Known about the structure:
This protein is α/β, with parallel strands linked by helices. It has 14 helices and 10 strands. The chain is 40% helix and 16% strand. Ligand G3I is lined by residues 84-85, 127-128, 169, 245, 275, 323. It is an enzyme of class 3 (hydrolase).
Amino acid sequence: MASLSALVVFAVSLSFRGVSALPQASATSAALPTGTAVVQGLNYLAQNAGKLYFGTATDNSELNDTAYTSYMENNLHFGQITPENSMKWDATEPEPGTFTFTDGDVIADIAKNYGMYLRGHNLVWYEQLPDWVTANNYNATGLAAVVETHVTTEVAHYKGQVYAWDVINEPLNDNGTFREDVFYDTLGTDYITIALQAARAADPNAKLYINDYNIEYVGEKSTAMQNLVKQLQADNVPIDGIGMESHFIVGEVPTTLVENFQAFADLGIEFAITELDIRMELPETAANLDQQKTDFYTVVNACLQVSVCRGITVWDWTDKYSWVPSTFPGWGAATPFDDNLVEKPAFDGIVIALEGGSI
Ligand code: G3I
């Protein structure tokens, strides 16, 4: 990571000019409260607070928006990036053995050019899986080879560029049992072992994560994830970290974040907040935006309380490109910046937490 640190310093010194590139509070958002914090940037503050990064997801379809990219591609603001879709299996191996990394490479190049850590997302997931993986009715030997080839080829392609891979995505049901998808149904938990071992062999320096939701708080799914980690450790299967997705609802952020995070830390692994957003029913109200400020504060502060929480990634940084409204009709406004890229009170909540203040 020495060269990355040097790049970060270089990028930080270069990008001071871009700090005030955002539009000011506009007429469209004037009726609602906006953020007022004046800071050099969230990543700057996160690194000052001892974290590796404050980062964001982004998608290739958003990269023609120059107001968006000029803010994002500023290392003071974001020191880490996650491709929201373009490294997933359907994007990278649409046909057996045919790999396309063009879109993923675009995101990887942004990370390289602006001194950002890159999180690889993701290698084995039941969603955004091309039909052939299921339709070919592989037996255990066949599917093991398919998983190994996919993981090996993709991780090798990005070798040396990825800080951490979400090797396994969302393997658990909410009651803590294993999700019954083509991988589990065919291979049992061996698919997890196969993928982690292949990833380690292909890029020994990348951190290997399992990423999931509803494991951010104390409960049976979190306990099941901890048990999975313990089993992998007992079996000498490489596992370095857990991704806490953290797709929350305003006013319902869990109260047991720190206790739960510490339980993962006690296993001797690291973790990260990988997909943070906090949605509300639309239209936004001043009260909900204020509550959202408190909620972002709570999550960021929880990461600061546990040293092996490496960093925080928002699942895109502006409401303009959030996945929420299309998935939860009537809901949205889940990110720290509004549709016009104006800072919301949530931005201030993040800043207060990163600066060690309280709400
Ligand atoms: O690629 C097609 C494109 O060809 C087509 O024209 C377009 C028409 O709608 O659809 C495109 O695919 C969409 C894809 O995003 C790329 O934009 C899918 O319909 C859409 O379902 C997909 O949504 C993504 C979702 O994962 C899929 O489950 C979201 O952008 C992405 O934010 C979301 O991210 C997931 C994480 O990977 C895992 N954790 C949960 C998180 C939120 O669901």
